[in-house]
Amino acid sequence: MMPQAVRVLVLAGLLLGARPGFSIDTDAKLADPVQQATYERLTSEVRCLVCQNQTIGDSSAPLAADLRREIRQMIEAGRSEEEIKVFLLDRYGDFVLYKPRFKATTAALWLAPLLLLVAGGLGLGRIIRRRAALPVPPDDEPGDDQPSADGTFDDRPIDDRPVGHRDEPPTAAKG
Fold it and tell me: Does domain 22-100 have CATH number 3.10.350.10?
């Protein structure tokens, strides 16, 4: 029987050795490091049109694999990152990029957070101004939460406090 530490080391070695089998992009890296960086950047910016909440670099969907292959071929053919993005935008529309370009059709996407923040700030300011304008009722009698003039708290039971005290329970209507 193997000791516990040896079993853990063997299991860790097996898991680390199997790691390449879990990768989604199984193609070899591009020869040029600049091209590889461009490829990785693009695959992390392009949305998987099947999954919609994953990039094509993270997706195992067949369409994502096709898009990765297409991007790889365009990079190997010498096309620039901008040319590849234009191709993807023309073919799939603004939705394909996680960060769509700012233009008339995407202005709401970019301006909505700012407008909501401003509207929330204005609403909060209005509430604060209204509350500040409310009259504060005078509290002539010290209660449990406020000390009396001599610095002590009113520890009398509610029934022994003066009538009209704010903590007094409501009286039942006699009928």
Answer: no
